[in-house]
User: What shape does this take?
Amino acid sequence: MTLAGKVALVTGSSQGIGQAIVLRLAQAGANVVINYRSHPEGAEETLEKVNAIGGKCYLAECPHSPRGHTVQADLGSVNMVRELMTESIAHFGKLDILVNNAGIEKHAPFWEVTEADYDAVLDVNLKGVFFATQAFVQHLITTKRPGKIINISSVHEDLPFPNFTAYCVSKGGMKMLTRNLAVELGSLGITINNVAPGAIATPINTKLLNDAEKLGALLQNIPLGRLGQPQDVASLVAFLASSEADYITGSTFFVDGGLLWNYQEQ
Assistant: This one.
């Protein structure tokens, strides 16, 4: 499996799952755009790791330059989403793969959710995905090329998650967006799929990892008996981004150790 000559944009890729995806795509030969919102140090660390993998971008638009490039953008702003796409395309000359990874969540009982928190979650998790995908598709139509869209969804596109209703709404919307666009974009040679992680060991889960009681209760719900690693998600994304997945579209792939079918709210 190779992605040599391809250019991928991974949103929210300064740490965690996004960083792992960037590195896996780079290992497969892709040139990568590393997007971050508020942690430039994480983006630079990711870029250093890409450079350590080795190789140069030999596309006509960027001869002999590094295969990684960082761009700051808040996916909650449609204007910044469009600027992100424009800068990514300007730097590498094209985009072939879009990974919609950026996402946020807000914890609160439903009856206490504020409009500001609701808007923050939906703006990043759904509106940002919608318009990043739109800009990417417009680019592919203009350049008359096929492409790959991979959304990082969640088991919570199907699984209820009390106290995170806005988050679940955003991921449920992503599921329907993916199914609808699979039909609408298929004739253009554009595929779109969701990767839905369960409990993954990332910086956002540091508090959980340090709480033995809560972690133990969660592990009892996971048939494979462990948390996932960012690399577990990244490997599937790399496959879906490759030509080996050309006949796959409109699907969700759960990376959860069996959690979805065994979960019981504590």
Remarks:
- The first helix runs from residue 16 to 27.
- The beta strands are 7-10, 31-36, 68-72, 97-100, 147-152, 190-197, 252-255.
- The chain has a mean pLDDT of 95.
